[in-house]
Amino acid sequence: MILNPSPDARLGISGTGGALFVKADTTVQSRVAFSSSPGFVQFVDVEGDGVWEFLNRGGGGWQDASLLDRAGRVVWTCGGMPGVDDMAAGDLDGDGVLDFVVGFNGSGGVRRLDKSGAQKWQVPDGNVWHVEVVDADGDGKPEVVHSNAGGEITVRDQTGKVLGRSNPGAYFSDFSLCRWPNHDGRKYPVSAEDDKVRIFDYDGKAIAQFDAPDAGTLGHAHGTVVRLRDGDLPNFAVIVAFQNWHVSILYVYATDRKLAFQEVIADTCNSVLALPREGSEIEDLLVGGTGKVWKFSAAAQSDARDPAAVPQLVPDEAGGNSPGTPDK
Fold first, then answer.
1. 266: burial class by Cβ within 10 Å (0-12, 13-18, 19+)?
2. What is the pTM of this model?
3. Angle, CA of 253, 254 and 258, to the nearest 5°
4. Phi/psi-derived region of residue 278, left when phi > 0, alpha when psi is between -120 and 50, beta in every other case
């Protein structure tokens, strides 16, 4: 993937004001300023041509979603009442071009848009809190997966037809996707509820569960596996953000799934990324916050094989605007 407009940059960081492209030493190579003030932004390659565009996922029912071009200009906007909760992108029909799926608040349901923002279909559902496009059944083709007012995991095909619904027990609302149990694993939903972080399959079964003290019920979880020590199995790291209180909690789990590290961050942190060190199997953990990116790395210990190694916080204000979203 070419990180436009600087192909030698290693890391892209998006925020509400624009995007930065930086080298491994955090030297800023180039910047893109956004013409609007989006909510939560992710990098996307709409036409598979190796050029980044920017997906504005919206503002949780209060802000429209949109697509921005490589220069940060708005291409199209999707919104109106009853309000966009979330928008995701993926190639649903296998034509090499991204489709966009929007989840609406209230009775707005789920809508599929093409690359120009034109609506292809709309199906009913209530309070579609979060939506993703992901291969849910392992057949190599993506489906639409979303939550709803009933706390259900809903899987739909490319036409919007429901393929399955399940109730995972804990209320399923805000979630994200992470690979499990390693970087080569499939993508599964991860969420935080009732002081637990859980990874679910698409039938609503918890395939992994972790204690998350003080995570409560209103946080949005993002997780990643991360190899903190050479030769060890990967750890699992989760950042749980509480938008209403502008605070987040970082949890890092040992290979036995026990909590090894917990840090409260006085910021809304909506992204976490395992970044490989050059020439090494070891990875650093990046957490994106308001105008900065924190880097966590394994602390030195006498037993370097200890899977419960405690990471050490290394401040790294690489730049960006809230919320910083690192993306390789």
1. exposed
2. 0.90
3. 70
4. beta
